[in-house]
Amino acid sequence: MPPTPEASDLPAPSQDASEPEYGLTAVAPIRFKVACPECRAGFELPGDAFLLAIGASRRTTTYSFSCPRCDASIRKPAGRRIVELLTQGGVRTLRLHTADGPGGQG
């Protein structure tokens, strides 16, 4: 049976702000591979380059970004799996609501 570690055997919290505490390390920002349908360029973008709009149906749920090569504004449909990946990656999300009747009143 292996010996139980003593308190003196455990790593002490770092006093240096540049070192991670308790063995935690910074994680690189998530990047997503996309392609521009306008110029056909393929590239990777960070999560903050996207906007996810969740609508009432599949047709109104989209994600958008700007192509860094040709500067085109791109909007693509976002199915369930894409919505899941983008939200887990920290992409800004906008939930769309429909107005019920005149002036948005019930």
State the gist of this model.
The protein has 106 residues and is mainly beta. The chain contains 1 helix and 6 strands.
Account of the 3D structure:
With 106 residues, the chain is mainly beta. Helices cover 8% and strands 26% of the residues. Strands 5-4-3-6 form a 4-stranded mixed sheet, covered by helices on one side. The protein has a two-stranded antiparallel ribbon with strand order 1-2. Strand 3 and strand 4 form a beta hairpin.
Shape: flat
The helix content, as a percent range, equals: under 10%
Count of DSSP E strands? 6
Spatial ordering of strands, largest sheet: 5-4-3-6
Mean pLDDT: 79
If helices are DSSP runs of H or I spanning 4 or more residues, what is the number of helices?
1
The SS-based structural class is mainly beta
Radius of gyration: 22 Å
The proportion of residues in beta strands is 25-35%
- Quaternary organization: single chain
User: How far apart are the first and last residues' alpha carbons, in Å?
Assistant: 69 Å
Contiguous uncertain segments of 5+ residues: 1-15
